[in-house]
Amino acid sequence: MRMPDVNPAFPRKPFNARGSKVSRCENCRLPETCCICSALRHTQAAADFWLLMHHNEFYKPSNTGRLILQSFPSAGISEWQRLSMATEFEVLLQQRPGDACLVFPEAPDYSHRMVRDVSELSARPLFIIPDGTWRQARRIFRHSAYLQDLPVIEPEVLQHSRYFLRKSDTEHHLCTAEVAVALLEQLGDREGAEVLMHNFRLFNEGYYASKGRNLQVAEAPPA
């Protein structure tokens, strides 16, 4: 089944932060002089992804969730709503009973819902990723009654995040694209993980280049 195409081009408020006057590519959201679209790779992953995106993320050029959509044709997206599901998301859950799995770190109060081995997943899992800042993602996870019966999986974090465009207070927190890479690696989908990591690397390099910075300097360990 092909997930519905959703165009997240309708933010509730304009993007007025630093860089809002820059002429940007409508697809990768990088400045047109640093567009990476022609170099992006695409493939069919071993899983499907659906982003429940906080409305603030729709207009942030630093968002990495869109890389999942650009990498995998079957990926989909809808804006998170606290009290109800977007129609396309509700239809998807009805069509994929037993496939959906919510992606979030483990905690004691829902440990009974945790999937601890990927062999417990369906043949083609549907990973639902809350997309936003850590605080926003936690709100999506905690405040959506319609998500409370879904199984939950925590990605295996094998290395520190390589995303330097935003700062996290917690070292093991990954950005949205890195979360999807980790899940695909757990499934043994090396090609899917490599394609998304390739696109993620291009995005980081393009973003840093647009600011006149060197990504290698950010990635270098402290002396």
Summarize the entry for a quick read.
It is an enzyme of class 2 (transferase). This protein has a single domain, classed as Alpha/beta knot, CATH 3.40.1280. It is 28% helix and 10% strand.
Keywords:
single chain, 223 residues, alpha/beta, Alpha/beta knot, 5-stranded parallel beta sheet, 6 helices, disordered N terminus
Largest sheet: 5 strands, parallel
Beta-strand level of the residues, as a percent range? 5-15%
Element order: H for helix, E for strand: EHEHEEHEHHH
Number of helices: 6
Top CATH class: Alpha Beta
Tally of discrete structural domains: 1
- Overall mean pLDDT stands at 84
Task: State the end-to-end distance.
Answer: 50 Å
- Briefly note the CATH topology name: Alpha/beta knot
Any guess at the CATH architecture?
A: 3-Layer(aba) Sandwich
The total strand number stands at: 5
- What structural class results from the helix and strand content? alpha/beta
Detail the poorly predicted runs.
Answer: 1-11
Classify the helix fraction into a percent range.
Answer: 25-40%
Task: Note the overall shape.
Answer: globular
What gyration radius follows from the Cα positions, in whole Å? 17 Å
Strand order in the largest sheet: 2-1-4-3-5
Pfam families: DTW (PF03942)
Protein name: tRNA-uridine aminocarboxypropyltransferase
Enzyme class: transferase
Organism: Nitrincola lacisaponensis
